[in-house]
Amino acid sequence: MTAPSMLAQALTHLEDAAVHLDIDTDVLEKLKYPRETTQVRLMIRMDDGSRKSFMAWRCRYDDTRGPTKGGIRFHPESNADEVETLAFWMTFKCAVMNLPYGGGKGAVRVDPHVLSKAELERLSRAYIKAFSRIIGPDRDIPAPDVYTNSMIMGWMADEYASIVGEATPAVITGKPIALGGSLGRDDATARGGYYLVRHLAANLGFKPGSRVAVQGFGNAGQHIARLLKADGYRVVAVSDSRGGVYCPDGLDVDRLIAAKQAGSVTSLAGSGGVKAITGEELVSVDCDLLVPAAFEGLIGAGNAADIRAGIVLELANGPITPEADEILAGKGVVVLPDILANAGGVTVSYFEWVQNRQGYYWTAEDVHERLRRSMEAEGAAIWQLASERRISLRRAAYVHALARLASAIEAHGTQQFFIS
Ligand code: NAD
After folding, report:
1. Among 6, 105, 146, which residue has the most ligand 1 atoms within 8 Å of its CB, making it the best to mutate?
2. Taking each helix axis from N to C terminus, what angle separates 188-199 and 364-389, rounded to the nearest 10 degrees?
3. Is 103 within 8 Å of 94 (Cβ atoms)?
4. Out of 60, 161, 168, 369, which residue is the most buried by the measure of CB atoms under 10 Å away?
5. 192 lines ligand 1 (CB under 6 A)
6. Among the listed residues 220, 221, 215, 209, the one whose alpha carbon sits nearest the alpha carbon of residue 281
7. Mean pLDDT, 10 residues at a time, over the chain (420 residues)?
8. What residue spans in the chain does CATH classification 3.40.50.720 cover?
9. Which residues, including other chains, have CB under 8 Å from residue 73's CB and lie 6 or more apart?
10. Of 107, 118, 139, 71, nearest to 349 (Cα)?
């Protein structure tokens, strides 16, 4: 028997949420399938004069609530199923936060680390050339994702401007500040998760001094460690792709960030009471809050039972498989789900798009304040829904988002409307 696709697994959340709402059959029919997925083979000239091709995708999953929005990933294992699943999650994430967007996603199957800088620029521009008719500030708005960054977004916006013949900064978010990016975008994903945890701290029994373990120490992982440490929480363990480090008295986050910038957090092991651990051991470290901030599916049926944390903050997309989710629910672990917990990134991307369209730019304080208000409002609503219906926060987040998606889809007319 072949394993279910990643999208089929993700769709179980849609079916589970629908049980809690009285929605028209049109809603599920519309949200069960991606609206359009385009696959292209990009050809670029390499530095040695040869030509090389790379498979690339852009999926616009659903645009009922507005133009589709979602990042572009450069990864050697990217595939259409993953892109469509990420676009499905974006559809729900934008609805959770009440952003006027649908969900989209893109990817190129490439290991960007083996390309020269000039090859990376040519590949980024080739992506926009290939998808220029699909994207647009009122159609589909890309952003950075795994292994893409603000400089790549700047190249892409520039390529789009040269195709359409006018500056169009709102076509892409996550740009460098000098090219129309927003202040506060850099740490937005972690900051959103931080505001959420802080707002729910009393309900969660999470207080200064509580111990935190962070899996993955890139953009999301480093910023959440920094923000929590500054509030008096103890970051006791951290891992990256090469392994991890553990110190029950708390790690020095500035030193961890410097070590990661020089290669890996593992270089700190062996001094000042810091012990080396494996990436697998990080999951079972004795702590209060576990923050998966690396990749999909790293917490599965094989290691979920080992988790000792009482709370999990999903900064990564889909870090917990459905089987692991059930194991954690059985253990009473409270999971703050990805479509809420990491939605700070797309929320500040939305702020960037608004600023580009207004031609008026906000201070970092404005951005933080608006993000805090959104995370607290949606987080509190989802917490209340979960308590009232006695369902998990993940299911409550899907119900919260599906109610918004359903009212938009139903506003075009329901079965009842057309037969009566
Ligand atoms: P990143 O590339 O900056 O960092 C990823 C980190 O994960 C790196 O430190 C890498 O060493 C580490 N890693 C890789 N494999 C690992 C493993 N097996 N165990 C432990 N660590 C491992 O990526 P990022 O932007 O921080 O994104 C991380 C996750 O957060 C992804 O799932 C991404 O989709 C999600 N996310 C990011 C944003 C954002 O704005 N950056 C927004 C929403 C969601």
Report:
1. 146
2. 50
3. yes
4. 60
5. no
6. 215
7. 84 95 94 98 98 98 98 97 97 98 98 97 98 97 94 98 97 97 96 97 93 96 98 97 96 97 95 94 97 93 96 96 93 97 98 98 98 98 97 97 97 89
8. 188-341
9. 83, 86, 105, 106, 107, 108, 145, 146, 147, 148
10. 71
Six token digits for residue 154: 């700047």
Distance between first and last Cα of the chain: 45
Give the span between the Cα atoms of 144 and 183, in whole angstroms: 15
Pair of tokens at residue 356 = 């580009």
Element (DSSP H or E) covering residue 310: none
* Distance of alpha carbon 27 from alpha carbon 37, whole angstroms: 20
Q: Which atom of ligand 1 is nearest to the CA of 242?
A: 11
Instruction: Name the β-bridge partners of 142.
Output: 70
Pocket test of ligand 1: the residue of 82, 99, 150, 189 to mutate, having most ligand atoms within 8 Å of its CB, is 189
Beta strands in 182-333 (DSSP E): 211-215, 234-240, 243-246, 275-277, 289-292, 311-313
| Domain 188-341, CATH | 3.40.50.720
Coil, strand or helix at 141 = strand
Pairing of strands 51-62, 289-292: unpaired
33-171 under CATH 3.40.50.10860, yes or no? yes
- Which pLDDT does position 140 carry in this prediction? 98
Q: Is 145 a pocket residue for ligand 1 (Cβ < 6 Å)? A: yes
Sequence ranges of the chain with CATH classification 3.40.50.10860:
33-171
